[in-house]
Design a protein that fits this description.
Length: about 140
């Protein structure tokens, strides 16, 4: 009986220390004529730095024209938003031609992007966890 109690105590301790895994999927549809990059970040783009992979943002992904994709994401959206500047994380959409023209350093220095969203879980709920990018007007 002691072993069972100890085993249950250990299980409770381990599960209480685990991060919550958020299973909600956030999708972006690229209905533009070209490839885009999606950047999710806690900070504004001009305050970011280029990471060891050569990109900016906490979660960077690419999406080809006329495609729908679940983008790279944090483990828990609510915690990520709470840890973000003003409790809203940023989603930047940047067209590939801007990255080719300015490079990631130029994107940061010039604060260049095609669309920017300030997001939290409630706003994503209202969007049904999906954004459609139609391209530059």
């Amino acid at each position: 009986m002691k072993n069972l109690s100890f085993f249950l105590l250990v299980i409770v301790c381990f599960t209480s220390c685990m991060d919550r895994i958020d299973l909600r999927k956030f999708t972006i549809a690229n209905n533009s004529n070209g490839k885009i990059y999606t950047l999710i970040n806690r900070l504004d783009i001009e305050e970011d730095t280029i990471n060891s992979y050569g990109f900016i943002g906490d979660f960077t992904d690419s999406l080809y024209s006329n495609k729908l994709k679940e983008i790279n994401r944090p483990v828990d959206w609510g915690t990520y938003a709470k840890e973000s500047l003003n409790h809203k994380f940023r989603l930047y959409i940047i067209e590939e031609d801007s990255v080719l023209k300015y490079g990631w350093k130029g994107i940061i220095n010039g604060n260049i992007y095609n669309e920017k969203y300030l997001l939290d879980v409630n706003f994503l709920d209202s969007l049904k966890w999906s954004i459609i990018y139609k391209g530059v007007k």
